[in-house]
Amino acid sequence: MQIVIIGNSAAGKSTLARGLEARHGLAHLDLDTIAWDPGAQRRPFDKSSQELKAFTTQHSRWVIDGCYADLAEVALARNAEDPEQSVELWWLDPGDDVCLGHAEARHWEPHKYPSAKAQDANLPMLREWIEQYGARQDSVSRVAHHALFSAYAGPKKRLGHASEALQHAVHPQLTADTHLLGELPSGSLLLHCNASLTWLILVPDVGPHDVRELLELDSARMASFLRDAKLLNDALRREGGWEKVNVASLGNQVPQLHVHLVGRRRDDACWPQPVWGNLPEGPTWSDEEIARLRGQLGRYVTELESSPPSP
To answer: Which of 123, 146, 165 finishes a domain?
Structure first.
């Protein structure tokens, strides 16, 4: 698997790339890390190109993301150099409004800015940069991305949202009982229909293997799951005001691996009993509430993307 992801700034390229990295065990290269020298000076193209070629030679399975059409073209050229390789080109194009929202919600990205204050100071420039995506004529413009995408003869896809590429099949019973909130690097995030509690269900992507138990996940997928679960736990307690989060993986009725994260407090409908078999029918989530929770999820995914993995 070899994938090149292009798109506007703040389109969600790194979120998508890190999701693919976690799910498929891919080496990941953010083109920003080889495109710039200290002092915000663009690195000479030949030097960046050499580093890119070294990466694709060193790793057999990888994902590369960035807004640089010229560097993306170097990675895609592996198809011509080695006919047995099948490099995929993905153009992530959610629209300027989505990109602007991502930019506003971003937490500090230490690999790009020396401090959170410096990143905040750069936000007006970033907003202007995003808005000029369709007007520019350089290698990081819509024009350049469209030309690269149109000319590429290999496998390719154009995506409106990162979740389109990360989403995987969910068991019909889970689908019937929940709303899909979106995709995290480790899998699909669902919301139980009963709005008495904030009851989240994370369905890890187990890849091609028939893994039904949490402790059967391989080390990479387990690490990705634990990172997402920690983020959701913190979100439930910080944003939802829940005193405790019940975490459980049962699977006695639904064989697909899934993990419940249920916000609890002493005045909830079935405290201190577990929710299974004890939670009475309650109100359902309105479309507005679901939209609000999806917006919060987008911010948490941005936070996940910008926080370094645990060692």
So the answer is: 165
202 contacts 228 by C-beta, under 8 angstroms: yes
**Domain range for 82:** 2-165
- Among residues 25, 26, 62, the alpha carbon closest in space to that of 221 is found at 25
Distances, alpha carbon 286 to alpha carbons 146, 179, 195, in Å: 38, 11, 9
Nearest to 42 by CA among 8, 70, 65, 63: 70
Domain containing residue 231: CATH number: 3.30.428.10
Neighbours of 162 (CB within 10 A): 27
Identify whether residues 299 and 176 lie together within a single domain. Answer: yes
**Residue 105 and residue 10 in one domain:** yes
Q: Reduced to 3 states, what is the DSSP secondary structure of residue 268?
A: coil
**Per the domain annotation, does 311 fall within a domain?**
no
- Mean per-residue pLDDT, 221-238: 87
When pLDDT is cut at 50, 70 and 90, the band that residue 307 belongs to is low
Q: Which CATH number characterizes residue 118's domain? A: 3.40.50.300
pLDDT digits 0-9 by tens, 179-215: 888 778 788 889 999 999 999 999 987 754 567 888 9
User: Is the pLDDT assigned to residue 308 strictly greater than 60?
Assistant: no
pTM of the complete model beyond 0.85: no
What does the buried/exposed string (b/e) look like for 108-138 if buried means 16 or more CB atoms within 10 Å of the residue's CB? Answer: beeeeeeeeeebeeeeeebbebbeebeeeee
Q: Where are the alpha helices (DSSP H) in 106-141?
A: 116-131
The residue-averaged pLDDT of 223-243 equals 86
Residue type, 229: A
Residues 301, 228 share a domain: yes
- What pLDDT, on a 0 to 100 scale, did the predictor assign at position 86? 81
